């Protein structure tokens, strides 16, 4: 795999069809917990095969859609919030590593879960503790070295986790913008895709 940061060059004269196409969820805008519906989908990840993974926040699950599917497949969690290895609580971020494992920012459980390819039982990669301060993770990204970067909106920082190490390194604590002496903008942005 190539390394580095890549950007897509889009000509200034490029145009798009301004009518969107619903690729997951209900095209009429209704929400639900059946496998054709979503409730508050928070994040997406598209792999090299154009498979779409969705952090379906209020359904407490991660859902996979293959190209042209209208019905998703639950790949992690279920409709009930929980903290067992097979449950999620308001997932906010999702990615797939180079081995096909699904990595989920299990936001309201203050942890990062890894679901091996084909398994709905996760293992905890990182969790809030006295040695690893981790608040609500809003987004995550995995690079080619399997290092995970997460945005933590509770503590206003970005954390980097190395493979097989549940203790993160604060990548930047100064990435917020101070608007006044009493307010900050929390890091909840999307990472650029690094290949």
Automatic annotation (TrEMBL):
This is NHL repeat containing protein. The keyword Transmembrane does not apply. Keywords: Repeat. InterPro entries: 6-blade_b-propeller_TolB-like, NHL_repeat, TRIM-NHL_E3_ligases. NHL repeats lie at residues 79-118. SUPFAM superfamilies: Calcium-dependent phosphotriesterase. The keyword Hydrolase does not apply. It comes from the Eukaryota. Gene3D superfamilies: TolB, C-terminal domain. PROSITE patterns: NHL (PS51125).
